[in-house]
Amino acid sequence: MLPVILVTSLFTLGSDYRTAYQQFLLAKNQFQQYKTESTRLAAVTATRQVLSARNSLWKSYLQNLRSQLANDTNLETEINYLDAQVPEFSSFTSLSKAKQLSKDWEYRLNNSDRLADAARQQILSYRLDQLASRLQPFIDQASPSSTLDLVKQKLGVPATDLKQRHQLLLEAANLLLQLP
Amino acid sequence: MKIFIPVLAFALLLIFFVSRLPQPHSATTTASPSPISNFQSPASVSTVPTQLQLVVDDIRSFRLDDPELIAPSFSRSLDIPAE
Question: If exposure means fewest CB atoms within 10 Å of the residue's CB, which of A7, A48, A72, B45 is most exposed?
């Protein structure tokens, strides 16, 4: 249930981010065109909103991944960092400060990306393990045959590539369907 | 002898038709275990492939590019104007 709520939240936050980004582009263009104090203030406000929306969106995504893993302290650290950015993004009063905060956030995103990718691989690998374990009772019940040997062989291949593992699992499952 | 042959033929025909009549089943016969009762019922036989088919369907629908796990898109280099 929790992942469903998080995915819904992610969808809403994605929509909020796109709106904030459009407002930011508009405010930025007006500030660059008119260079007045009011357009500067509008640009600062719009930048606060877009930085906060981007931060929330990425945090929600990491939380979604985190909720599907038994334990992962690396993601927890990233989520805590993003949490700490919330007051920073809502309090700056100059565009130069906003630029510095944004650059720091984007720099850290590279590492955060790698962690998210590792978490994604871990979740998919776990799902494949679960599917393989659901096939096991049918293998245990089947009578000995060359087809069954082939099934066991395919499931026993030490594959680390997820695509290859899925393919082998699919082939083993299709062979099991052919057994009497 | 001439009379005996038609009587014998009639008797044989009678025995033939009587033996073809449906036999009433006794209560003992109905209650006794059927020879096929030791086999699995059709329902239990069909359950096994159905469950396997469900697992196979789940394996087929497994996606490496699950939309739930795809990272959201956003600007990774926000161009904030200088003051």
Answer: B45
Total-model pTM: 0.76
ipTM: 0.86
A95 contacts A47 by C-beta, under 8 angstroms: yes
CB A92 within 8 Å of CB B80:
no
Q: Which two tokens stand for residue A33?
A: 């065109």
What is the interface size between A and B, counted as CB pairs within 8 Å?
89
User: Which residues lie closer than 8 Å to A101 by C-beta, 6 or more apart?
Assistant: A51, A85, A88, A89, A92
Cα–chain center distance at A94:
31
- Report chain A residues whose CB lies below 8 A from the CB of B50: none
State mean pLDDT over A95-121: 97
Residue A50: alpha-carbon gap to chain centroid? 19
Q: For the residues B14-35, what does the mean pLDDT come to?
A: 50
